[in-house]
Specification:
Radius of gyration of chain A: 24 Å
Structural class of chain A: mainly alpha
Strand content of chain B: under 5%
Number of strands of chain B: 0
Oligomer: heterodimer
Largest sheet of chain B: none
Largest interface: A-B, 34 and 44 residues
């Protein structure tokens, strides 16, 4: 028995608050890691677009 | 009537005045339509998390949820299992990408977002019709709930209660727009969770903790602590369990008044904090009321109306002022949902109907004024209808959630995760999801088939979206590029992509940036990098 419940009942219902909190914390770090990549990507994208515009302007 | 003393009136009055004050304050700060409709896209992570969750949770969490566990035992916690993880799915799947794409497309409303992502004459008309119809049903039901709650708890006559409760919501939404809604939601979210925890801690002590609660419940009736409900009434019904968990786990991604919160985030980077805050808030607010319903079985075995479990526990265990705050918390739960829906109605009627079909050249000021007027008109009309109390309003709200979820979920998710998703798929999914939900509910097929309305609605809607998208014309190259850009997946020339990559040491990056400064290079006779 876990807290007076059959183990399968406990895990089915009451293990979720802890599980979800852990998942959210893991997501925080995973998303944080992606943020850095995405920030670098966005910067590179803006530079790329600016260079394309510049090339287009020169062609004209 | 449970309350009705001077303390309750004073606490409620202070609360309602506070809400009005927030509306007045933010009225001065909403200068453009983007400010008024989306808070200028400057909403931080804490505010986003709380407005997202309080909008999702209505007065049901204080009354309906605990009443169900009181009657059925642990089985009802399946709903909490789904609800508790809702924010992880909602923010994790949609948050960042929807924020980016809506910004790139220049959208102010979730219906405009659908139309711009899936261009076509039918898209906005169908989306707006479904959203306006079912969100309006929601608004009406929340106004009625606000009035009925005040009436039941304070003994105020129902018409007066509806006018006061709904009138305050209409006022602060009308005056302050999205920022007022977000800030009132923030305060309401704190009041809601603090009240719930206060009663929970005291009730926890009374029943001897979780072990004491479970042992006493098992001694009373072993099926109360089983997996299939009191008397094993749902034995082996995994379809019902899947529906109960699924509805709230993924359903919020289809609700326009909820997903608009992603569009208002200050930056996609805030999504990570939002996930954590919203999830922790969920665990405190969602599981606790359901468990309090179980505590009610032991502490209030002869209660007449199980919906009053939480409130009766509050009045049994807490001193006067704190019990009165619980009354305010119940009103907060109702108001935080109603204001978001009312705000969305104003946004849709102003942006998606007036500016789209009536005055395409409307100025920013005109759009803001029209949205304000729409909020006021919808609010006043809803109050009048609520006073007349038409039959069927509550049955409408029962399947509003399922219908909205089934109609929009595939389109919102597909918009940012599948660049091939197109107008045909979107229209097919909205029509099929909406129609199947209405038929399923109207024909009462959920009981005999053991399939929840949302469950069948979402399956049909997803199938229609995929088939329609594969049959229909692919989105334009520009749209596909935008979807990839929202996901940060467009292929950038290698040199540029690596120039800023994280693996380069910060000092090196700094040198590169310095050297790339064209004025520095030009002064020394070099071509810019």
């Amino acid at each position: 028995m876990i807290f007076g419940l059959e183990p399968h009942v406990f895990f089915a219902f009451l293990s979720w608050p802890v599980t979800y909190t852990i998942i959210a914390i893991i997501m925080y770090f995973v998303m944080g890691k992606n943020d850095k990549k995405e920030e670098a990507w966005e910067k590179a994208y803006d530079e790329w677009q600016a260079s394309l515009k510049k090339e287009g302007g020169e062609d004209e | 009537m449970i309350g009705g003393g001077v303390t309750e009136y004073v606490v409620l009055l202070i609360y309602l005045c506070g809400m009005i004050g927030i509306g007045v304050y933010w009225a001065k700060h909403s200068k453009t339509s983007e400010d008024y409709l989306l808070g200028g896209r400057k909403i931080g992570s804490v505010l986003t998390a709380l407005t997202l969750q309080t909008t999702s949770m209505s007065g049901y969490m204080f009354m309906g949820g605990p009443a169900q566990t009181y009657k059925e035992g642990y089985f009802t916690l399946w709903y909490a299992v789904g609800d508790g993880g809702g924010a992880i799915f909602n923010v994790g799947i949609l948050g960042k990408r929807m924020r980016r794409l809506s910004y790139y497309l220049g959208c102010l409303s979730p219906i405009e977002y659908i139309e711009k992502r899936y261009p076509g004459p039918a898209t906005r008309a169908i989306a707006a019709a479904i959203a306006i119809c079912f969100v309006y049903g929601y608004v009406l039901a929340q106004f009625l709930s606000a009035g009925k709650t005040m009436c039941a708890l304070l003994g105020v006559p129902l018409p007066v209660a509806i006018i006061i409760g709904a009138g305050v919501i209409v006022f602060y939404t009308f005056a302050g727009g999205y920022l007022a809604v977000a800030w009132t939601d923030f305060i309401q979210g704190i009041v809601m969770v603090c009240s719930m925890i206060m009663i929970f801690v005291l009730a926890w002590h009374q029943v001897g903790g979780l072990t004491g609660l479970n042992e006493q419940l098992t001694a009373l009736d072993p099926t109360l602590t089983g997996m299939w409900g009191k008397g094993n009434m749902y034995l082996g019904q995994w379809g019902v369990v899947a529906g109960a968990v699924g509805v709230y786990l993924i359903g919020y991604m289809g609700l326009p008044h909820v997903v608009i919160r992603h569009m208002a985030m200050e930056s996609p980077k805030l999504a990570k904090q939002t996930v954590v805050i919203a999830t922790v808030w969920n665990q405190l607010f969602i599981f606790v009321p359901y468990i309090m319903g179980l505590m009610g079985i032991l502490l209030l075995p002869n209660i007449e109306d199980p919906e009053m479990v939480v409130l009766t526990l509050a009045y049994t265990l807490l001193p006067g002022v704190l019990a009165a705050i619980v009354l305010v918390a119940i009103m907060s739960a109702i108001m935080s949902t109603a204001d978001a829906q009312l705000m969305l109605m104003g946004t849709m009627l102003g942006r998606d109907i007036y500016q789209r079909y009536i005055n395409k050249n409307a100025t920013d000021k005109q759009l803001m004024s029209v949205s304000r007027i729409c909020i006021l008109v919808v609010g006043v009309v809803s109050i009048i209808i609520a006073l007349l109390r038409p039959p069927g309003v509550f049955s409408l709200v029962v399947f509003s959630f399922s219908t909205l979820g089934s109609s929009f979920l595939p389109s919102y998710v597909g918009a940012v995760w599948w660049k091939r998703g197109n107008t045909t798929g979107c229209v097919a999914s909205m029509i099929c999801g909406c129609i199947i939900s209405i038929i399923w509910e109207a024909a009462g097929l959920a009981g005999p088939t053991g399939m929840h309305t949302f469950f069948i609605g979402i399956i049909v809607s997803i199938a229609a979206y995929i088939i329609g998208s594969l049959i229909g014309k692919p989105p334009t190259k520009e749209m596909q590029d935008l979807v990839e850009r929202a996901a940060c997946k467009t292929k950038i020339p290698a040199g540029l992509a690596t120039a800023n990559y994280k693996d380069i040491a910060p000092e090196t990056n700094g040198v590169l940036t310095f050297l790339k400064d064209s004025s520095y290079m030009e002064e020394r006779g070099f071509q810019p990098v």
